[in-house]
């Protein structure tokens, strides 16, 4: 369904939301997946189909959420910008995730924010699918984050981690979730800021051959993700000649199915 169908105030065209419901029905955790930069939801449903199927098999409901994912953080928060505004990345993520007017460098409207889009979608599903029990993911018409696992690829993984800093979610599975920087090639300070979600509810993966593997590892350490919740993937990659080889393998390559099952099972526990 299109975001505008869920709220007429959502005007940016970013493609449809895609919603899956586990055949088990009843009470189930909800996994919300945020694609990476330029990662259309219709392409994500193909590229990440194995991960989606794994989550559904473990009883999750699964939403690929359409949101404004361009321009990327790294395209906006360039070195010249960071030299005078080291908090550029956090300001951009705050606006894109929560709709607050923290920066003029992107033009996202408040109703286009990730949190509002998810809230509007859940309210819409409550009305249009009354047998679906979607109301279990709302608390007084706001998202009940204790029932939601956030996941995402690249920029989307970074958005999942950023939101988890601000609200206590059920868990996060961060696939190569961005490499936000501040001046002097240091990772952004928001990674090490206090978070609402306990670090033991966070998981992070990256491939060792990614261009920014070292920065991603530093960001996971700064978020205090436990060592046994971080996974440096090293199986052969399918596109070794890509511009950023290995980027995207963690969320899409079926060879990591057992790892997905482990993370999903641990976050599925009450």
Structural class call reads alpha/beta
Q: Give the topology string: H per helix, E per strand.
A: HEEHHEHHHHEEEHEEHEHH
- State mean pLDDT (0 to 100 scale): 95
What overall geometry do the principal axes of the alpha carbons give? Answer: globular
Largest sheet: 7 strands, mixed
Strand content: 5-15%
Distance between the termini: 30 Å
For the record, the count of structural domains works out to 1
The name of the CATH topology is: Rossmann fold
Protein name: Alpha/beta hydrolase
Task: Provide an overview of this structure.
It comes from Chromobacterium rhizoryzae. This is Alpha/beta hydrolase. The protein is an alpha/beta fold and 270 residues long. The chain has helices at residues 3-6, 41-47, 49-57, 73-76, 79-84, 88-98, 114-128, 155-166, 213-222, 249-252, 257-268, and strands at 18-20, 30-34, 61-64, 138-139, 142-143, 148-153, 171-175, 202-207, 230-233. The strands form two sheets. Strands 1-3-2-6-7-8-9 form a seven-stranded mixed beta sheet, sandwiched between helices. Helix 8 links the parallel strand 6 and strand 7 (171-175). Helix 3 (49-57) packs across helix 11. The longest helix has 15 residues, at 114-128. It is globular.
